[in-house]
Design goal:
Blueprint: H1 2-27, H2 41-90, H3 99-128, E1 138-141, H4 142-152, H5 154-160, E2 163-167, E3 172-175, H6 177-194, E4 200-208, E5 211-217, H7 252-262, E6 266-270, E7 277-283
Parallel strand pairs: 2-4
Antiparallel strand pairs: 1-3, 4-5, 5-7, 6-7
Helix pairs in contact: 1-2, 2-3, 3-7, 4-6, 6-7
C-alpha cells in the first residue's frame, strides 16, 4: 500500500506543479504560451480548461489594447486641431484680443497640451504592453537625457523656485533613446509634481560595477506605506499634492517600470526621511 501511495504521489506531483505554474502564468498576464499538462485524465482535462481560459483572456486583452489604441487616436486628432487653433488666436491671426480673451485662449492652449500629453501616455503604455524588448538598441548617454529633461522643465522650476542639484557621470547604456528619455522625463515630472515650492530635487548618477545607478530624490510628501505595493500599477494614483494643478493619468511610473525592465534594469522606491527616493539600475554599454 505504501508503494502504491508513493507511485501515485509521483504520478500527480509533476502535473500539479505544472498546473500551479500555469495558474501563476495567467495571474501574471502571460497569455501567449499554450498550457499543456500531462498526467491522469482528470488533470489533463483541467489543463485543457486552463488553456481555454488562457485563450479567452488573450482575446479580451487584445480587444482591450485595440480599444485603447482606437480611442487614443480618435482623441489625438481633434486635440491637435484645438491646440493649433488656440495658437493661431494667440498669434492674432483672427484679430487682436483683449486681456480677458488672451487669458481664455491661454487656458485653452495649456489644457489641450495637458490632455494631449495624457493621450500620448496612454498610447505609449498601450504600445509598451506589446513589446518585450526596446524597438531600437544604441548607445544612449544618460547625462544628455537628464540635461534635456531639466531644460524642458525650466519654466515650472523657475515659477515654483524649485532647485535641481545634479551629480552626473559620463555613462551610457544600450537602449532606445525615446523610451529612456520618457523614463527620465516622467521621474523628474513626478518629483516636481510632489515637491513643495522652493524645494530641492537631487539627481545623482553612480557606477556600480557594470551597472549604472540613478537616484532621484525630492522633498515632497513621500509615498504612504499603504500605497507602496501599488505604486507601479497602471492607472494607480496616490494622493495629489494641493499645489499640483494636474492629477495625471496614473501611467507615468507604470510606464517607467515597463521601460526599465525592457532594458534589463530595475526600479525601486527606497526609504527616505523626507520625500520620495527612486533608484534605477541599468546595465552599462558593453565595451
Amino acid at each position: 500500500a505504501l508503494l502504491i501511495a508513493v507511485i501515485f504521489s509521483l504520478l500527480i506531483s509533476g502535473p500539479l506543479r505544472h498546473l500551479g505554474s500555469a495558474i501563476r502564468q495567467l495571474g501574471a498576464g502571460e497569455f501567449n504560451s499554450p498550457i499543456e499538462v500531462n498526467g491522469p485524465q482528470d488533470i489533463r482535462e483541467l489543463g485543457e480548461q486552463l488553456d481555454w481560459l488562457r485563450q479567452q483572456l488573450a482575446a479580451l486583452n487584445e480587444q482591450k489594447m485595440q480599444f485603447l489604441h482606437h480611442v487614443s487616436h480618435e482623441l489625438k486628432t481633434p486635440l491637435t486641431t484645438i491646440r493649433e487653433g488656440a495658437g493661431l488666436l494667440q498669434d492674432g491671426i483672427a484679430g487682436d484680443l483683449n486681456i480677458e480673451q488672451k487669458e481664455v485662449v491661454q487656458i485653452l492652449h495649456d489644457n489641450s497640451l495637458q490632455l494631449q500629453s495624457q493621450v500620448e501616455s496612454l498610447l505609449d503604455f498601450n504600445l509598451a504592453l506589446t513589446q518585450e524588448q526596446p524597438p531600437e538598441q544604441q548607445a544612449v548617454s544618460i547625462p544628455d537625457l537628464i540635461t534635456a529633461a531639466v531644460n524642458k522643465q525650466q519654466l515650472i522650476l523657475q515659477s515654483r523656485r524649485i532647485g535641481i542639484q545634479t551629480r552626473l557621470v559620463p555613462l551610457s547604456v544600450n537602449g532606445d533613446t525615446r523610451q529612456l528619455q520618457t523614463v527620465i522625463d516622467n521621474l523628474l515630472s513626478n518629483a516636481i509634481k510632489f515637491s513643495p515650492d522652493r524645494g530641492k530635487i537631487d539627481i545623482r548618477m553612480t557606477r556600480q560595477n557594470q551597472q549604472l545607478q540613478l537616484d532621484v530624490i525630492d522633498e515632497g510628501i513621500g509615498v504612504p506605506e499603504e500605497d507602496r505595493s501599488r505604486l507601479f500599477e497602471p492607472f494607480f494614483q496616490g494622493k495629489t499634492p494641493s499645489n499640483s494643478p494636474v492629477s495625471g493619468t496614473g501611467l507615468g511610473l507604470s510606464l517607467v517600470n515597463r521601460y526599465i525592465h525592457m532594458h534589463g534594469g530595475s526600479i525601486r522606491l527606497l526609504d527616505s526621511s523626507k520625500g520620495a527616493h527612486f533608484q534605477i539600475t541599468l546595465p552599462l554599454c558593453s565595451l
